[in-house]
């Protein structure tokens, strides 16, 4: 099944000194695209711009949430052109691990206000997610909130999840993608990068290309660390 979002490119209105010009255009070839790269390489910048382009708040949530805790992002979404398939997107959600707490706070405040509508938390399993751990609240999001025919933009979902819960996360993502959902995920997790039948993109300072997991910097580092029984770390940080 063809992805909802197939391509994103920059318009010529973007400033010439924009630091991530080399990242565009981006082709989305599969229903699961995983993006990896070092801190500061532009992963979160790409996801944030896409989320804003689709009408989500910079701090996360669906297009029905309109809130702002801090104004610290550079919104270049007006300089993006997106290309979509003929399929209709029935749901959009932007998950950002570093601001998920802010999103849960906004949801709690909205549920506390007088309304004739059911509590928003009902769509997330019915419980106050603020009363859960970060990992439990993340699990509630994907177990109850995500569904087929949705576009889900996820920034470092592994930050909240144990290894076993990352595997459960992968199982859910694969099931939903096979039912038509599209996922764009930025991650440092080798477990998420090893999902079958994904498009894996690696960012560096000067390039952005499709790779196999074995060719990623993450794979190299984990292999060296695990095979050396910790000696590789000692050599890197020069410990006797």
UniProtKB/TrEMBL annotation:
Residues covered by the AAA+ ATPase domain: 29-204
Membrane topology annotation: Peripheral membrane protein
GO cellular component, one term: plasma membrane
Keyword field contains Chloroplast: no
Record key words, sorted: ATP-binding, Cell membrane, Ion transport, Iron, Iron transport, Membrane, Nucleotide-binding, Transport
Signal peptide (from-to): none
One GO BP annotation of this record: iron ion transport
Protein name as annotated: ATP-binding cassette domain-containing protein
Organism, scientific name: Acinetobacter halotolerans
Upper taxonomic lineage: Bacteria, Pseudomonadati, Pseudomonadota, Gammaproteobacteria, Moraxellales
């Amino acid at each position: 099944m063809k992805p909802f979002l197939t391509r994103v490119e920059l318009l010529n209105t973007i400033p010439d000194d924009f630091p991530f010009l080399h990242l565009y255009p981006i082709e989305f070839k599969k229903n699961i695209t995983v993006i990896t790269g070092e801190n500061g390489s532009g992963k979160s910048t790409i996801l944030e711009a896409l989320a804003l382009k689709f009408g989500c708040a910079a701090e996360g949530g669906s297009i029905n949430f309109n809130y702002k805790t801090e104004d610290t992002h550079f919104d270049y979404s007006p300089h993006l052109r997106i290309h979509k398939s003929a399929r209709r997107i029935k749901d959009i959600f932007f998950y950002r691990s570093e601001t998920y707490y802010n999103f849960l706070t906004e949801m709690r405040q909205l549920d506390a206000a007088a309304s004739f509508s059911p509590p928003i938390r009902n769509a997330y399993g019915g419980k106050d997610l603020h009363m859960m751990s970060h990992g439990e609240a993340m699990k509630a999001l994907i177990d109850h909130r995500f569904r087929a025919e949705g576009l889900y933009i996820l920034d470092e979902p592994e930050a909240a999840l144990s290894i076993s819960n990352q595997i459960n996360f992968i199982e859910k993502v694969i099931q939903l993608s096979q039912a038509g959902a599209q996922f764009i995920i930025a991650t440092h997790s080798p477990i998420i990068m090893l999902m079958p039948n994904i498009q894996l993109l690696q960012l560096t300072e000067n390039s952005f290309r499709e790779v196999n997991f074995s060719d990623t910097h993450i794979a190299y580092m984990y292999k060296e660390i695990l095979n050396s029984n910790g000696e590789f770390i000692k050599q890197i940080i020069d410990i006797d």
